[in-house]
Design goal:
It is a multi-pass membrane protein. With 516 residues, this protein is mostly helical. Helix content is 67%, strand content 1%. The protein has 25 helices and two strands. A two-stranded antiparallel sheet has the order 1-2. The longest helix is centred in the middle third of the chain and has 32 residues.
């Protein structure tokens, strides 16, 4: 089931097939009957494929947020009766005999490597920034490769790189090696989200593409929620234990990808690999006995040639470049609030311990997933994204203004974060519908990394605010940028209920998406 080719079929890989004719001009018209069952519902093998593929987001979320616990600054206490030592003291100005950590030094990299007294703020934030820089580079490189080497292959290598790097992190002995490996982990992680979204949507019929695209977000939320649980039970052990407990199961998952997940038949057909696509569609778990489609009909879908690279397409097609830039701008604005609210305000406003507050922040993503899951087939993409972005931005601005009223501030904060979560989920589904198969993986990956970039900029902007007055100004800027960037999607075409093109040639000939 895992491989899209077999030795018997590989001998015919170079066989010539008739070119696309008018009757079978749409890949969707050919493939959808293979996916549909007699009663029009999604088949259980397709559900299994979607669940297995989406499970990658579970491990991706763990590695994204693991530094909340491994890089946390531990609590400390005074061990001396010296009046100079109290709870408000700066430990860097105290002698080592006057204070001590509440837990063993190996519970955090900060205490183990004495990072708390480094004067350079760059070094203190190096591990976190290295991970996100790796995500940005990986999104640009691996996202493009996903459209060339396949969705499944890219998902496998992305998970493998992230998992192996995380295992080696557990054996690092200084912050430099640790940061370098976090960069590599982020590099691999960048390929996972877009590959999951695209592979899931291309593994089912058109009717269910929107809904299955949300399963990855649910798995990501579940992975985020599981992290504080694992961290709590390992709180008295080395921070290395948390890395091993999250990365070793991910290695086992990589084997499941290799042997239990099949390649996207739509991607195979878009590359002219008719034999391999036919083998996937006619395996026992996808074959629909009520369908009379055969190999001869499917062979008409062979493309006359491969699409050029993403860079060439963007340089040649200014309209596609403009759409991508608008989607990137919207993603960046949403990312400002998606990461800015929990990192800049969330944990500070909840008077709870780190495990419970992180779990509550993670649980906020669950209702946003449910809303997108049940309404994705009914709501219009553009108007919904505009409304969510404006709501998130306005609530984010009011959040700091209402700092004297804690209950109101918390409600505004949660509303802003909830709106950003929902907008984030919907934007990625919208992006996958907006671009043709040949560049879909790259486009989704680039927009995803724009959200990550917003997460990099947001905490820096908030920290630069300094005192309370400047923080109000910082959040005003964040709110205005989020609302403005979200409104840019009005210049993108609406995709709800429209047929999505599979390649650039089809986009030119049919204009699958109506431009406005």
């Amino acid at each position: 089931m895992a491989n899209s080719t077999t030795p018997l079929l590989s001998n015919h890989q170079d066989q010539e097939f008739p070119k696309l004719n008018d009757h079978f001009s749409s890949l969707g018209q050919i493939i959808d009957p293979f996916f549909d069952t007699c009663n029009g519902t999604i088949a259980w093998p397709q559900i299994l494929q979607v669940i297995l593929v989406s499970l990658a987001c579970f491990f991706e979320a763990q590695q994204t947020f693991i530094t909340i616990f491994t890089d946390a600054i531990p609590s400390w206490h005074c061990v001396s009766t010296n009046t100079s030592c109290n709870s408000m003291s700066n430990v860097c100005q105290l002698s080592l005999t006057e204070w001590n950590w509440d837990k063993p030094i190996y519970t955090s990299i900060v205490s183990e490597w004495s990072l708390h007294c480094f004067t350079s703020s760059i070094l203190q934030g190096l591990p976190a920034s290295s991970f996100f820089m790796g995500c940005l580079l990986g999104g640009l490189v691996l996202g493009v490769l996903g459209d060339s080497i396949g969705r499944k292959t890219m998902l496998f290598f992305g998970c493998l790189i992230m998992s192996i790097a995380s295992i080696f992190i557990a054996f690092s002995n200084n912050v430099w090696i640790y940061s370098a490996l976090r960069f590599l982990s982020g590099y691999g992680r960048a390929a996972i989200g877009s590959s999951v979204l695209v592979l899931c949507s291309e593994s089912v019929g058109k009717k269910y593409q929107g809904k299955v695209g949300t399963i990855g977000f649910f798995m990501s939320t579940f992975g985020f929620v599981s992290l504080p649980c694992l961290a709590y039970f390992s709180k008295d052990y080395s921070w290395r234990v948390l890395y091993l407990s999250t990365s070793l199961p991910a290695i086992v998952y990589c084997l499941l990808i290799q042997f239990c997940v099949y390649e996207s038949p739509i991607w195979l057909l878009s590359k002219g690999k008719v034999i391999e696509a036919y083998a996937v569609l006619n395996t026992s778990h996808l074959k629909n006995e009520s369908s009379n489609l055969d190999h001869n009909k499917l062979s008409f879908t062979t493309m006359s040639g491969s699409d050029p690279s993403l860079i060439k397409i963007l340089l040649r097609k200014k309209s596609i470049l403009g759409q991508l830039l608008l989607a990137v701008a919207a993603g960046f604005g949403i990312g400002l609030m998606y990461y800015g609210m929990p990192l800049g305000l969330g944990n500070g406003n909840f008077s709870l311990n780190i495990y419970l507050s992180t779990g509550l922040n993670a649980l906020l993503e669950l209702p946003s997933f449910l809303i997108v899951f049940f309404l994705v087939e009914k709501c219009k993409r553009r108007s919904t994204l505009v409304g969510l972005s404006v709501l998130s931005g306005v609530c984010g601005m009011l959040c700091m203004i209402a700092s004297e009223r804690k209950v109101l501030q918390m409600v505004l904060e949660l509303t802003s974060f909830f709106s950003a979560c929902t907008a984030f989920d919907l934007l990625l589904i919208y992006t996958s519908e907006l671009f043709p198969t040949s560049i879909r993986n790259a486009a989704v990956s680039i927009v995803w990394q724009a959200v990550v970039l917003g997460g990099v900029v947001s905490p820096v902007l908030v920290d630069a605010g300094g005192d309370s007055n400047n923080k109000i100004l910082a959040y005003l800027i964040l709110g205005i940028m989020t609302a403005t960037a979200g409104c840019l999607v009005v210049f993108l075409p609406e995709t709800k209920g429209l047929e999505i093109c599979k390649n650039i040639e089809e986009l030119e000939q049919k204009g699958c998406i109506n431009h406005v």
